[in-house]
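Table S2 (continued). Query chain:
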Amino acid sequence: MRSSTRNEAQPARVTALWFGVQLIWGAVLGISLQARCVQLAGDASLATFGLISASGAFAAAITQLVVGPLSDKLRRRGQDRTIFYAGGALFGALSVIVFYNSASVHALLGSFVALQIALNLAIGPYQAVIPDTMPSSRFGVASAWLGALGSAGNACGAVLASLLGAARILGSILAAGLALSAAITLAHLRGVSLRPLPPVAPFAPARTLIDLFVSRGLIYLGFYTVLGYLYFFVASLVTNATRTTGLCVLLFTVVGAVGAILAARPSDRSDERIVVSIGGGLVAISVTALAALHSIPALIPTIGLAGVGWGIFLCGDWAFACRLLPPAMLATTMALWNLAVVGPQMLAPLVATTLLFHLKTLGNAAGPRDALLLAGAEMLIGVLWIWRLPPSRKGN
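Corresponding output:
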């Protein structure tokens, strides 16, 4: 039970855990999973990547659907969600070490699935941390911190992966970063009283939730297509794909933090559909332009513009959901909402692989370019879909 004395929640410390989670994903999803598939599968690396990525995303979706309602049940009984944060961080730290020590494709598959289960054990309940601890008038600011720290974590993970490759020591460094960030958040939440919950209303999948899900899902489908195939696209331009892809992910995430900060006040003061559309639109345009590039110098400004747009999108997207979803069932509805992230993570490689197979570009340099064009189209449709939603409540 929480103390009746309320200490004000500090956004930077409440969202610190997100840095550690995204530190791992910045290294694993952007670079290391692809590099490890090349190491262990050789010419079958694209197909192996699709299988492993989809399997991990499926495990993530199931995990969130189970732990979300369970954490809501505990929350309604007056307890907090910190046991999920601590357990997820502990098992996530162990799983990422095993991932970098895997010596076969089967071991890599098992360790990646375990990593997805562990981190989503924490992520599912953690999605409700902002409404649990913050007044609605500060959702935009807190979401900006979440976006900025997440982008910073992605950047650090990409740097580490590009410098260390798939070395075993990288797993230990990532595990330590996750443990430290979790400790900061857990220590702070011990002194923060949770905000009162309204009565539980019967849950029904209203059109608002469905449209929010579809729009977000399409944008993330494009994002994970870019994230999954950027490494292979860069490999068609340069020989040192690991280092160059790491620099691209670093740039994307650093400027993404800037974009999230820029979107903080607009997300609290204006209709978040506008914020989400500006951010998602910038990414869609940039990704489409990326597919036409044939030189590394032109790659830098394009990736930079996409990163700014992604940071703006992240801030507006999270604040929008915090306002629209029912407070008494946040983890449950956010688990459903977050299927629009883990679902695309599973579907993106399957959709792209199927398309590339039919275009007969699965095994050549044109394949990654076609995947990027697909990503731009997916994101653009998601941006247009957001306008089926009602205006947000602007910080009310």
